[in-house]
Please model this.
Amino acid sequence: MDKITLSRPDDWHLHVRDGDVLKNVIPDTARRFARAIIMPNLKPPVTTVTQALAYRERILAAIPDDCQFEPLMTLYLTDNTSAKEIQLAASNAHVHAVKYYPAGATTNSDSGVSDIKYTYTALEKMEQTGLPLLVHGEVTDPNVDIFDREAVFIESVLEPLLKRFPNLRLVLEHITTAHAVDFVKSMASNVAATITPHHLLMNRNDIFKGGINPHHYCLPILKREAHRTALIEAAISGNPKFFLGTDSAPHSQASKESSCGCAGIYSAHAAIELYAEAFEQANALDKLEAFASFFGPDFYRLPRNTDSITLRRKSWDVPTELPFGNETLIPLRAGQTVAWHLDK
Ligand code: NCD
Ligand code: ZN
Model:
């Protein structure tokens, strides 16, 4: 197969930041995807519907004229999120989910939840209204090994949470381990997961190959090969619980190549092409469309897209850097090639 046509995909987990850089990063996503779930971890975070709608306007202003793209907004859950705000979010046409970051788990998560019990009234309202909870599934205890933080989170936080709120609609975001795959499969249809292109294509050796590479540092961190294989199996399984979410997370080159480098990998410039590579390596290109274009909208109770995109097997060179406001951004595969090309 040298050419594939897919219903236009959506990205169910995306960081686009704010301000000047929106016009640099939004076009990459808007040329590939019809919609994206926009992460609320700005500084300060997007915690109210009013803030989410204002952020949405700033994103809309950065979309190129020849693209139709819809940002799907989210709120950032804090210890103080009220049931009233959840009700407002659930009844707003532009807000589609609430994001749960354990405080300190990742980039800009300082205002995250300090103890899940403080969010019970908000979660109760989400369970009632059907507004999905998107979970960054890692414990923050510095004594837990960084490679075990997802597995420990599932056992110590997620399992008890879903026992308490069994009907909560929940997406375990950017899963990285066989434990997460097994857990999501074992739950009812209200629990799903997103998988990134980088966790499908790379394992933890890629952080250290030929010297430490800060551009392969993200959270949750890349895991060992057996986990990557488990993610591939989940993604190509045809199980509707697993769908596309890039977690494309731009940071300036300077803040990545630093003595205390930020976590996050930018993949928006080649996102669907990179998924095509991963599915092809697994001999499962025929499974890409459902993963990329059907299972996400089905979970979010939104219509599937009606237009399509075409990818061709044609290797292209990824730029060594991209503009990012007054700075630069190093994209995934910078200076290397991607095997599939998007017809534009
Ligand atoms: C994300 C970011 O930079 O905002 N970083 C990352 O490594 N994925 C935050 C997140 O989703 O964890
Ligand atoms: Zn993310």
